[in-house]
Amino acid sequence: MNSPVLASLLPVALLIAAGVLAGRLAWIRPGAVKDLSNLVFLLLTPALLFRTMSQVRLEELDFKPVAAYFVAVVLLFGGILLVQGFNRRSAMMALAGTFSNTVMIGVALINLLFGAEGLVTLLTLVSVHALVLLTTATLLLEMAVQRERTADRGALGQLRWTLRTLAKALRSTLLHPVPLPILLGLAFAQTGLSIPEVIDKPLALLANAFAPLALVLVGVTLAFTPVGRYWRGALMLAGVKNLLHPLLVWALCQLFGLEGLPMTVMVVAAALPIGANVFLFSQRYGVAEELVTASVAVSTGMALLSLTAVLMVMA
Question: Which of 303, 291, 304 is nearest to 232 (CA)?
Answer without folding.
Answer: 291
